[in-house]
Amino acid sequence: MYDKGRIIAGVVIFLILLAFPLIYLSASGEGGYVPQPVIVTEEEQCVEPAEYMRKKHMELLEDWKEGVVRGGTRTYVASDGTEYDVSLVETCLDCHTNKAEFCDQCHDYVGAKPYCWDCHQAPEE
Predict the structure, then answer these.
(1) How far is CA 72 from the centre of its chain?
(2) What tens digit of pLDDT does each residue of 40-81 get?
(3) Cβ of 94: how many Cβ atoms within 10 Å?
(4) Which of 4, 27, 53, 119 has the most CB atoms at less than 10 Å from its CB?
(5) Which residues contact 46 (CB under 8 A, 6 or more apart)?
(6) What is the spatial distance between Cα 76 and Cα 53, in angstroms, rounded to a whole number?
(7) By the 8 A CB rule, do 86 and 73 touch?
(8) Distant-in-sequence, close-in-space partners of 117: CB < 8 Å, separation ≥ 6
(9) Better-scored residue on pLDDT, 30 or 14
(10) H helix or E strand, kind and range, residue 121
(11) Which position has the higher pLDDT, 50 or 25?
């Protein structure tokens, strides 16, 4: 117990070194690269608001797949009441035509490996 001060000092220094990258990035305001996907469309919005789609588009696509395959549901009613065809190719890919500039930017950024293209044909670039 004679080294209590040194142990506490060592733990504090270790924690500061461990937290340094987070402290530095938040203090400098430079969080790094954030993707800016390019959307080429005449539509005003997606099937749901952009914030919802950023967070939950995969859940929406999973629900669509389950609904079509297991229940035969072919229509999606959005939160604003608009009806859409439940189709990755005919609904989503009408607006999101460039996989490299839209899908791949964000998926690469977060390290996601989507399996959409295992069954669907990827849009031509």
Answers:
(1) 27
(2) 777 778 899 988 998 999 999 999 999 999 999 999 999 999
(3) 14
(4) 53
(5) 53, 95
(6) 14
(7) yes
(8) none
(9) 14
(10) none
(11) 50
